[in-house]
Amino acid sequence: MITTLAGAAFLAGAVPLSAAAPAWLGKAVSAPDRPAAAAALDAGRKPAEVLAFLGLKPGMATADIMTGSGYWAEILANAVGPRGKVTAFEPAQFYNDPDEQKIWKALAERRQDIDFVRYPFENWSAGGRQFDFVMLSLNYHDLYWESAEYRIPRTDPQAFLTALFAAVKPGGVVGIIDHVGAAGDTRAIVDKLHRIDPAVVKADFERAGFRLEAESPLLANRSTMTGALRRRLTRSRSRARNSFHSVTRTRASAPSMAA
Q: Which of these, 132, 201, 115, lies nearest to 160 by C-alpha position?
């Protein structure tokens, strides 16, 4: 989670990884109406444990940005229940793909409790102070990506984070999961490998007013090649098995008031 900047705390592994997720989260994940293709990803993504670490609670107003197949959005809807809210955001550039449209249509027909919003990849925004919880899963790095093929122009990550900070309630949580990359030229690394240096993510969020609350190695996946990253990603929807993952929890604190 990241919170607004006010004494940043870097707490690696702050939550005991052996602690079981609460039963209500397990029930949200094991719901029988979830697609088999989504459920097949659970062993690697550990959704109940991740959401427990991130501090999700029933009744929260949540957002899943760059939702893709809606994997997280559907679990969030099960978890927050009828008193909560889920908004699934998808870039128009991705939605315009025929395969994406089929996925979204099926999800929308199946889930009347999820609001679906399309937006220009380079210009995300939402109403002010409406979300308690935001999920960014395996996609923050894409804000440093540009592609003529997929009609993705150069995007300003700080503009995105300014809009995100404005959309999150004071004390709200942003959970970030991403492929870990080495230090260096961030745009070049993202273009080549679709990975990002965690230090870049932390610095970006802190500049926008968030505060890092905790990190977890819950999804770390070390390859047998002494940490070598064997497989490249060509799009944010690719999933590399032999990659490192970082789970970060940040929180948006109340803005300071001038005297």
A: 201
Mean pLDDT of 43-56: 95
Which positions ≥6 away from 15 have C-beta within 8 Å? 52, 53, 214, 216
Q: Which ranges constitute the DSSP H helices of 111-224?
A: 157-167, 186-193, 198-207
More confident residue, 247 or 141: 141
pTM for this prediction: 0.81
Q: Measure the CA–CA gap between 150 and 90, rounded to whole angstroms.
A: 14
Joined together, the tokens standing for residue 247 give: 């789970």
- CATH numbers and ranges of domains, the chain: 2-222+231-252 (3.40.50.150)
Which phi and psi angles does 258 have, rounded to 5°? -70, 145
Mean pLDDT (whole number) for 75-88:
98
pLDDT band at 232 (very low <50, low <70, confident <90, very high): very low
162: its two tokens: 């300014």
Residue 16 main-chain phi, psi, to 5 deg: -55, 120
pLDDT, position 94? 85
* Torsion angle of the four alpha carbons 240, 176, 42, 117, in this order, in degrees rounded to the nearest 10: -100
